[in-house]
Amino acid sequence: MIFRKFREKLKSIFTSRKIDEAFFEELEDTLIEGDLGARLTDEVIETLRKAAREEKAKTVEDLQRIMKGLLSQYVHDFEFVPKKGELTVFLILGVNGVGKTTSIAKLAQYYTDKGYKVMLAAADTFRAAAVDQLDIHAERLGIRIVKQKTGSDPGAVVYDAVTSAMSQGEEIILVDTAGRMHNKENLMRELQKINKVIAGRGVKEENYKKLIVIDSTTGQNGLSQTLLFNNAVPLDGVILSKYDSAAKGGALVQIGQQLSLPIAFVGTGETYRDIHPFDREEFLNSLVGIEG
What we know:
The chain is α/β, with parallel strands linked by helices.
């Protein structure tokens, strides 16, 4: 169950207390611990206090529904479906260690299962291990990969991948990118260059999506990473890795609040098929402790 510890804590607050000052203080502490952030937590608590004062909320269940409604405005679905017969490029971003390359492999399996012709592009040429890892995934999945030697120009890899996919009739390219370089400025410049290469190769704007992978368990770090990458390349959505009971849901709401970014996919396990489209209703219910 996602956010199990956080949900159980919230549930205990909502079920074991009457609506009084101690209730609101404990709820406030719990929301901040869940990485909802001080500003958004203040907004939630003030809204709930007002509802309780005005008797719009007579029970804790009423407060849960009000809280869900408030947070729902910041949680968005990713509604993009690649068109069959056209080329779609997914540029996958994220720092090292968040599960980016594994998420790419899972997405490759997901779209292959949907009947798309999928290709991988190894544009993280800064690390030899990254190219090798993606190559292993491609072999296991039985799909093509475009790669060059370590240290090659990532833009050239992407150029070759798009050109090759167009000639071979492939429909989806999943592009792995560097999560670290000699410094942050170099990394951001490389990503911006890749972005220009894809835009300049005739890929339709509506078929080009930039997704960042963040580790669901890292909370505020995920928000910071998203803000950083979005400054370099405007993002279209988020992929959550390690989406399980240890995940911190509050940071995801903050991402939606600050950037209006939808959550596209969630990685839930170790196998290639352990990736699923984000379920907004399930997420919101879990976040506020509503059963079912």
